Amino acid sequence: MNYGISILFRAIPLLMALFCFGYGTFVLDMGTDTNRFVAGPVVFSLGMICIALFATAGTIIRQIIHTYSTAAKYALPIIGYLAAVVCFIGGMTYISDGSTVAHFVAGHVICGVAFITACVATTATSS
């Protein structure tokens, strides 16, 4: 794998995370239907999985191209787990702040996404 392709493969999850964050915010802020309280935050939280995918891709690709340093060995998995923790806290906050069924449902889905994010981050750790 050459260096240019390695940058592309690491950039794709970050770009998808930015898309999820932006689109989730757009749906939540600009929507007119009450379902926006579920769809917006859930789409936003999917960006956290993308952050963990970046950490996993960064770990594996850096090993392949022989640029895997001690700092990357610790920083990349920490980034993935940090995304999972932030996502879980966001889900729990969304559950406790909201008084509607939409907040209850979306908060639990976001907490589930946090567990998926942690699983993906574990792949970075084990790699």
Describe this protein with a few key phrases.
mainly alpha, 0% strand
Brief sketch in words of this structure:
The chain has 127 residues and is mainly alpha-helical.
Describe this protein's structure.
The protein is an all-alpha fold. The chain has one domain. Helix content is 87%, strand content 0%. It is built from four helices and no strands. Helix 2 runs antiparallel to helix 3. The longest helix is centred in the middle third of the chain and has 29 residues. The mean pLDDT is 94.
Would you report the number of β strands?
Answer: 0
- Largest β sheet strand count, sense and barrel closure: none
Order of helices and strands: HHHH
Residue stretches low in confidence (pLDDT < 50, at least 5 long) are none
Overall geometry:
elongated
Which helices and strands appear, and what pairs or packs with what?
Layout: H1 3-30, H2 36-64, H3 70-97, H4 101-126
Helix pairs in contact: 1-2, 2-3, 2-4, 3-4
